[in-house]
């Protein structure tokens, strides 16, 4: 069944990047000239997603505004003949009726945020995309996952995985590696564990912020079982679902950026700036000045 819907959980507090996120949603932080949320919506569009579901919270209204038309801006740009800017805004605008917003009234965890989207998603497989993780590549990470998913015959779930150094596995969700799929970049997941204590990780494949899940995950999430940090964890629900359905890890191509941390956010700005032909030379010249200091 085609993956038509993507859920973007955007209700978290973003405490790692305070004070930037005190009054502004983390997902609106800008990498070069676009908010994080726009990057992941573009990635989802490229993967064939037709409906975009945002799980928002308090102080997140500006995300809804970002995907709406701004009449004052449109008319002023038109009056000034700024065609390129008009085109830019039109390109980012989702089709009317292709977005839904629902609220997670309190940040009870990622699993709870996904569960909040259950009625909008309905009874079909869907994608979950975390906006604070960007993957720099074409085709995008989700497109690579959908392509891999389409090669699976049984009712399967897919998670994006990437190798991390062995001494860092305790900071991530880690999965066990089973039989390789004929496609090569995909393997059966034998176990999943959230932040395993040092020396106990089943592999060094970390679970990243992209998932394709079967709707049965909602039945597990509705139990509201709390895990690490007292939150309803998506990984715990996936461990539950793995008892009856298969999970595959897809080793995607691309550079992953954790924009929810200060260092990762800065690095992403440099990486995305360097990838822009119109900005690259100027950026190198500016950075050189700092290296010479
Ligand atoms: P994070 O784990 O980065 O949590 O969430 P956070 O609260 O946003 O940030 P820190 O750790 O306090 O700095 C990953 C994604 O899941 C969403 C976040 O908005 C983010 O996009 N999320 C997290 C929710 O929607 N609800 C939650 O209860 C928790």
What does this protein structure show overall?
- This protein is an alpha/beta fold and 293 residues long.
- It has one domain (5-291): Spore Coat Polysaccharide Biosynthesis Protein SpsA, Chain A (Alpha-Beta Complex), CATH 3.90.550.
- Helices cover 32% and strands 25% of the residues.
- The chain has 11 helices and 13 strands.
- It has helices at residues 36-46, 61-66, 71-79, 83-92, 110-115, 118-121, 141-149, 217-221, 234-241, 262-274, 280-291; strands at residues 5-9, 30-31, 34-35, 51-56, 99-103, 126-129, 133-136, 156-163, 173-180, 186-194, 205-213, 246-251, 255-258.
- It has a 5-stranded mixed beta barrel. The protein has a two-stranded antiparallel ribbon with strand order 2-3. It has a two-stranded antiparallel ribbon with strand order 7-13.
- The model has no long low-confidence stretch (mean pLDDT 94).
- The structure holds uridine 5'-triphosphate.
- Uridine 5'-triphosphate is lined by residues 9-16, 26-27, 55, 104, 107-110, 112-113, 130-132, 260.
